[in-house]
Amino acid sequence: MARIMLATQNDELRRYLAEKLKKSGHTVTRVADLGAALTILEEAAYDMLLTSVDAANTQELDFARAAQEIDPDMRIMFITGFAAVAVKRPTESRDTNDPLSQPVHLIQLPKEVERLVAA
What we know:
The protein is α/β, with parallel strands linked by helices. The protein has one domain: Response regulator (Rossmann fold, 3-Layer(aba) Sandwich). The chain has 4 helices and 5 strands; from the N terminus they run E-H-E-H-E-H-E-E-H. The chain has helices spanning 11-23, 34-43, 59-70, 109-118; strands spanning 3-7, 27-31, 48-52, 75-79, 84-87. Strands 2-1-3-4-5 form a 5-stranded mixed β-sheet, with helices on both faces. Strand 4 (75-79) and strand 5 (84-87) form a beta hairpin. Helix 2 runs parallel beside helix 3. It is globular, with a radius of gyration of 13 Å. The mean pLDDT is 81.
């Protein structure tokens, strides 16, 4: 299973998703502070970064870019209020960049995390 960093400032979302992902067998590190998350990423390798994104705030996008610079091979998935979107690397096929159904039911997330990590 995957080693996942779950970095979001939303306490309830972070708690809920961590619980679901752990039940699916993943190792999850929960982080509320994005600056602290970057420090952790510099010290340890993760298969995936799962973070929320708010259209009114680019802080999460800047965080994801910095995380990708630290580990270019790490998968990144954004969760928005309407969908989860996996970011593809240039060498990947188009279908790994497609949003899940909108709105995504969070029960689907562990399955989609496994799909993205395996890609």
